Amino acid sequence: MSKRTGVLGKVLGKQPIGSLFVTPYVVFLAAVFAYPLGFAVYMSFHDYFFTAPGAIVERPFVGFENYATMLSDPAVRRSFVNVGIFLLINVPLTVVLSLLLAYALNGAVRWRGFFRVSYYVPYVTASVAVVGVWLFLFNSNGLVNSVLGPLAPDPSWLVNSNLAMPTVAIYVTWKQLGFFILLYLAALQNVSKDLYEAASMDGAGRIKSFWNVTVPGVRPATTLVVLLATVTGANLFTEPYLLTGGGGPDGASASPVLIMYQRGIEQGNPDIGAAIGVLLVVGVLILALVERRFVGREN
Amino acid sequence: MKSPWKFLGLLVGAFVFLFPFYYMLVGSLQAEPDPSVGGAFPSPGNLTGHNYAEINAAINLGRSLLNSGIFTGGVILGTLVFGVLAGYALARLQFRGRGAVFNLVLLVQVVPFQLLTIPLYVMIVRSYGLADSYLGMILPFAINSTAVFVFRQYFLQLPQELFDAARIDGAGELAILWRVAIPLVKPALLTGVLLTFIGPWNEFLWPFLITKQQDLQPLAVSLSNYLTTVSARAANPFGAVLAGACVLAAPAVALFVIFQRRFISSSLESGVKG
């Protein structure tokens, strides 16, 4: 097999057995990725409803009707505004905090391992588990409010329609920060030491050299962090579902995925659910392109 | 660098990150919930294991943990077997379509799983009748594109001479993979397994959608059901929830603390440098 050359080798490659090795993966992608992707788009343009398995029914093409129905639903529009608020808080906070903590950690000599573990622990823990503690910490007579005393918001954090989504955004930032700190730590290894030396020769202080050397040096990582934070943020479901009792108060923290689940599965309108999903993904892709433009412009 | 405020900042950060976990543990052991500041310090008279008994009576911890274990184990097995095969082929074998498959690996990671939720639900639950089954739970995660990419990076780092020598000796590709390549990247594969573990162990939405039968639900799902429905009726609902949370958090945190060096080193950096 190793000596396969000539025409056959040109057509199939030197080790055609490789195609056999990737077959399960490709079949899997076709079945669990490509097909459902096409199916989602198909559903969103047809009158699709749940039937008994094997039943043959008409699924008439309805054009943009599902999209029109979905967009005229105030709860859906609200959920897209909500995720916008979420991203406006979560993404900048994630970038700033994870870069600062990674920078400090990179320079730290004492307790490095301890710090790394503590920052990463929320990320490896199930959201369902830590949500329990946050509920306990942030309910109206929880620890946070008893520390704040008269400064505690009324109504409390998660039942306050102005604070519910920001609280969810801060929770998610806290939960995922460790992962982004690690991305920045890896990126900081690549920033040349010479640049810092040159900056200090030029009389730049610590803040100046952070701003002029570190920040541009990790720009590719920043692009990645912004994109990943946006994509995970757009997928928000578990946190509003559990922290705010299904997106309350009064829909103030409902995310598009939560509404997609309610309309598509709970209320039995998979075509509407699919339309919400398609709109969400198109929105994320546009946002990702815009972010790439602005954040990654020097690359 | 020797700046004390940097160290101080790191300390404050560590406190913010760890405190909820500490509070989780303390809260799970309290007989009476105490939301005041004093409640953060456990007093011996208020300590009890009752919350663990209560959550165990409500959701059968053993069974839920077993379900989480089967779900996670199935995902890891699929990821390892098929991911290593694909990763090895993409790194080390020249065959027709290699470039196309590699582009697929990268492309797939951009599309969010949530778009697929509704169609996958329709397919798996309605068409294939796999609701309330382990297979239905595992299927969408059985191969992980990120893992394929990471495995490929590991195999790429091995020297080509090894493979040439083995091929001259007449070894088949499967034998080379099994006897030469895998033993050399074993430590890295462990990292892959650990990173894959976190996903299904903590996954909530998918098993939540497809398991209605309580005795098939992973712990994350049964705990959330307890959180949203039963907890209102329990004597110390937060205590019981926190006890369940500790049980759910413990395996992942323990694995991470034990293997923390592996989590941090090669895989992420190879991922970033791509």
UniProtKB/TrEMBL annotation, chain A:
Keyword set, alphabetical order: Cell membrane, Membrane, Sugar transport, Transmembrane, Transmembrane helix, Transport
Superkingdom: Bacteria
Any GO BP: transmembrane transport
Cited Gene3D superfamilies: MetI-like
Residue spans crossing the bilayer: 20-45, 80-105, 117-137, 168-188, 209-231, 272-290
Entry-linked InterPro entries: ABC_transporter_permease (IPR051393), MetI-like (IPR000515), MetI-like_sf (IPR035906)
Membrane association type: Multi-pass membrane protein
Localization: Cell membrane
Annotated ranges, domain ABC transmembrane type-1: 80-291
GO cellular component: plasma membrane
Main subcellular localisation: membrane
Protein family per UniProt: Belongs to the binding-protein-dependent transport system permease family.
Protein name: Multiple sugar transport system permease protein
Taxon lineage: Bacteria, Bacillati, Actinomycetota, Actinomycetes, Propionibacteriales
UniProtKB/TrEMBL annotation, chain B:
GO biological process: transmembrane transport
Record keyword Transmembrane helix present: yes
Protein keywords: Cell membrane, Membrane, Sugar transport, Transmembrane, Transmembrane helix, Transport
Residues that span the membrane, as ranges: 70-90, 102-122, 134-155, 176-198, 238-259
Broad class of the protein's primary localization: membrane
Compartments in which it is found: Cell membrane
One Gene Ontology cellular component: plasma membrane
UniProt topology in membrane: Multi-pass membrane protein
Annotated ranges, domain ABC transmembrane type-1: 65-259
Keyword Transport: yes
Source organism superkingdom: Bacteria
Database matches in InterPro entries: MetI-like, MetI-like_sf
PANTHER family: ABC TRANSPORTER PERMEASE PROTEIN MG189-RELATED (PTHR43744:SF12), ABC TRANSPORTER PERMEASE PROTEIN MG189-RELATED-RELATED (PTHR43744)
Family: Belongs to the binding-protein-dependent transport system permease family.
Protein name: Multiple sugar transport system permease protein
